[in-house]
Amino acid sequence: MTEDVVRVLGYATLGSRLKRIGEKLQMQTQELASELAGTSLPTPHNPVLAALDRQGSLSIGELAKALGQSQPGVTRMINKMKADGLVRAVPLKEDRRVSRIALTENGEQLVLHLKATLWPAVSIAVAQACVDLDGPLLQQLDQLEKALDRKPLGADRSDAPLPAWESLSPGREKPE
Q: Which of 58, 86, 122, 168 could covalently link to 62 via disulfide, CB atoms 3.0 to 4.6 Å apart?
């Protein structure tokens, strides 16, 4: 049996461990998106859609800050989302060189669908996977990885009635 070096090295490889868990969560969310919401939307696009829904139109820099991601990475994602017809660039009246990113009508419809299906289901499933975590951080990460391996997000974790997305997302800001 091959030793799980990332797990064994503990805090020395915490970044790699968190990345591995993040990738597992994104993969399982992608599968759930296909099964539950009937969409092949790349999982990383969900936070962009949520940010634009919560805060209204934003510049690329504001989106990068809201998501905690690099500006070039957000720019690439926005370009893909523009090509898919989910967002559009809206030039500012006072300076046409500067634009803000806004949801298109298709993007708004997709957000409504995701708020009623995927987002609450993922929130519930991840909360259920984390409910019994106990102990120091590395022990909790062990428990979370095992829980996700034993029962992926789509595996009857989301069979409870779905609450409204807004009740699962505290601190909702109103668009200006």
A: 58
CA 22/CA 24 separation, integer angstroms:
5
Q: Which of 46, 60, 58, 24 is nearest to 169 (CA)?
A: 46
Quick one: pLDDT band at residue 153, thresholds 50, 70, 90?
confident
Collapsing DSSP to helix, strand or coil, 81 comes out as: helix
Give the residue carrying structure tokens 């428990």: 143
For the stretch 57-109, pLDDT in tens is 999 999 999 999 999 999 999 999 999 999 999 998 888 888 999 999 999 99
Task: Give the integer Cα–Cα distance in Å for 107 and 87.
Answer: 6
Token digits for 51? 């940010």
Asked whether the beta carbons of 138 and 11 are under 8 A apart, the reply is: yes
